[in-house]
Amino acid sequence: MKKEHTLLTDELDSKLDIVEIISGYLPLKRKGPGYEGVCPFHQDDGTSLNIYPENQTWLCSGSCAVTRKLNRLAPNNHGDATSFVARIEGISFGDAIRKLAVRCGLAPRNGAQQEQTDVPVLRQPRKAMAAAQKIPGMYSQATPTLPYFSELEDPHLQTGHLAYKGRLYEPRNFLANMGRLYELAVQPRLGLVIALHATLQGHCQIEYPDGERKILDSIGMHDAGDVIWTNNGEASAVIKDVITRKHSEVDVFGVSTRGFCLLELPGTNDLSWCWPREPLEAGGRGRPFYYQTGPNDADVEGVLLESFSVANSLLPEYLDISGVTVPVSEVKRNRRSHKDRLIQKSK
Hints:
By secondary structure, this protein is an alpha+beta fold.
């Protein structure tokens, strides 16, 4: 048993990508040759968690390190991908090995124990990645250290469609220190796919609403639907400020068949593609969208795209990234107003 366990561990080490695994639980930001993030094992006000892809390890240099130094019986402040999964999910090291082995295809899956929270952890080719049909994920505010992966991936990119790289999520405790969370979150940015390069390693060229163009690896890119451009008055959306909870109506300049809307957000003169909130059938959770409103780190606002409307002839329904089909309704407006009545009364 000990020899088999060692062989399995060695094979796992050759297949696991620690950045891919940990980014399934919390947002990471590139720093030099590695990555950093908010440590989920203590109340972290900074970015104490460091990930080193070169040797596939993680290290907490904050409170976890201090606690370990004072108490040698305390949990380690460093480890590999398996130890991270074991600690964050509250399972044994052996169970973490079996869990990752199942995900990697190194062990048979028990159908009765199939989990909805599986995430791809292999350095695998694009065809295998497409078949996985997992991610992007969303973090629940109530359980900030655990991932939520109910959303389906559509990895078949097309030119002329919207696309984004990364995951959609709800940063924890977004009501406090919003600027810092926005900086750490590496929020996905949506743009038009203007070119696909498929020979050898696949690449995708994206154009953003401000005209900027970037070439990105196709792996990790997600299709966000075909684009329907709208003229003034043809579409509008209701957004809610995540801090003040105030609602406002804004014009929509474009909408995708996956429900993403092109808006001019309050406090800016720039257009941004914003994702809609989760449909009720999929849980009804908010998907906050954060954006910069000034030159300082603290100049950050956040909104929820609560509702949008467009003519049925343009978009009768959309397929949400949760897999739920949502009907689109036109706004019903009343031309009568108190102002008209008061004018009549004054005559």
